[in-house]
Amino acid sequence: MEFIITALVIIALLAVVLAAWRFFTLRSRGTTVILRRLPQTGVHGWRHGSLRYNGNDLEYFKLRSLSPMADIIFNRRSVELLNRREPTTDEAVFMSSDTRILHVRSKDAEMEMAMDGYGEMAFTAWLEAARDARTENTLTAADFLKNQNRNDTRKGRS
Question: Which InterPro entries match (predicted)?
C-alpha cells in the first residue's frame, strides 16, 4: 500500500514540475493566443495558449496541457488567412480590448485565432514570408552553369 501511495505522490510531483516547466518556458517565448476549431457557436471552444514560430511551422501549445510537444502544428504552405473580425460582445468579456480574431484555414481544419495587434502583425508577416509554390526555383546545376557562362560572355568576359 505504501508503494502505491509513494508512486502516486511521485507521479503527481512529476506532473506539477512538467506543468510549471511548460507554463514558464512557453509563456516567455511565444505569442499569447486564444484559439478554437470551427465550426463553433457563441463563445464555446476557445482555448488559451501560446504560438511559437519555428521556421515554416507554427506551433500552438495549449495553456492547460502537460505534453512537452506542440498540440497543433501549422505548416506555412497549408495556412490561408480567410478573414479578420472584431470580437463579439460575448467574446469581449474574456478577451482584451485590443484583440482581433483571425479566421484561418489549414489543410486539416478551419480555426479562429484571437490575438493582439502585435501577434496579428507577426502572424501575417510569417504567413506572407512563405515562398509561393508556383515560383519555386527548379534550376538544375547544369542550367545554372549554362546561364553563368552566358552572363559572363555578355559582360565581355571569356
Answer: DUF2550
Structure-model confidence comparison of residues 158 and 31, the more confident one = 31
Measured CA angle at 118 (ends 113, 81), to 5 deg: 40
pLDDT (0 to 100) of residue 26: 62
Measured between alpha carbons, how far is 49 from 158 in angstroms, rounded to an integer? 60
For range 85-101, the mean pLDDT? 89
CATH of the domain at 108: 2.30.29.30
- Model confidence band, residue 19 (pLDDT cutoffs 50, 70, 90): confident
Exposed, middle or buried, 109 (CB in 10 Å: 0-12/13-18/19+)?
A: exposed
Report the C-alpha gap between 90 and 18 in whole angstroms.
Answer: 33
Q: Read off φ and ψ for residue 109, nearest 5 degrees.
A: -165, 170
Residue 128 main-chain phi, psi, to 5 deg:
-75, -15
Q: Which domain holds residue 92?
A: 2-154
> Is residue 113 packed enough to be buried (19+ CB in 10 Å), middle (13-18) or exposed (0-12)?
buried
Confidence of residue 68 (pLDDT cuts 50, 70, 90): confident
